[in-house]
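Supplementary Methods. Inverse-folding protocol.

Structures were first reduced to a discrete structure-token string of length 219. This string, shown here, constituted the complete conditioning input.
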């Protein structure tokens, strides 16, 4: 079928024809555009939280695919040494630090144990022995393991203390959390995908109704 458009050609009145665009082609382009938008939004949100930065310190990392193992790389960007790091958590049963650091007790950090009170806590670490702390430009790795029942993945604020007494708060660090919320970024991504899916289904049904062929006049 060819769809006609009336126009002028070299001074004479004629008919310019263009191939008709099929309804299914329009629908496919519409779907691709919406899914591309969802992918871009999700990618930007994930990239934004991949590295939590503060002018004085960088913290890179978070949970693995299982959601039970966390790892962060803490890099000192300040002139003074780092002498304490703090990671808020819920449901951790193990916290691992470099050999030159010491950590709090199970009760102090509210790690899961036989006497666990079921509340959130803070895993912290400080230099051990004669180690003076993490110097400028250096990186230390801290790890956390979550108990079998798991915890929600979200974002929160880690804290770092320097030898000169300066405190730094680093927002948007991926941390194990308690509660019904999923974390701001995850909630935004989920809401966006659900909304996009609703629109796609709605448009698909509308276009199918509009694409119903008209009766053919055999005369």
């Amino acid at each position: 079928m060819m769809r006609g458009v009336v126009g002028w050609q070299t001074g004479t009145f004629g008919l310019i024809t263009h191939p008709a665009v099929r309804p299914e082609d329009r629908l496919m382009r519409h779907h691709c555009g919406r899914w591309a938008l969802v992918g871009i939004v999700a990618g930007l949100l994930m990239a934004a939280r991949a590295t939590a930065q503060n002018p004085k310190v960088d913290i890179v990392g978070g949970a693995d695919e299982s959601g039970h193992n966390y790892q962060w790389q803490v890099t000192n960007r300040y002139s003074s040494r780092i002498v304490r790091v703090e990671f808020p958590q819920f449901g951790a049963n193990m916290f691992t630090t470099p050999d030159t650091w010491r950590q709090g007790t199970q009760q102090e950090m509210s790690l899961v144990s036989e006497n666990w009170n079921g509340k959130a806590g803070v895993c912290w670490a400080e230099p051990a022995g004669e180690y003076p702390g993490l110097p400028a430009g250096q990186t230390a790795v801290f790890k956390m393991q979550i108990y079998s029942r798991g915890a929600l993945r979200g974002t929160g604020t880690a804290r770092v203390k320097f030898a000169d007494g300066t405190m730094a708060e680093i927002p948007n660090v991926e941390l194990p959390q308690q509660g019904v919320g999923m974390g701001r970024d995850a909630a935004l991504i989920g809401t966006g995908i659900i909304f996009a899916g609703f629109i796609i289904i709605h448009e698909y049904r509308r276009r199918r109704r509009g694409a119903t062929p008209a009766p053919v006049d055999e005369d």
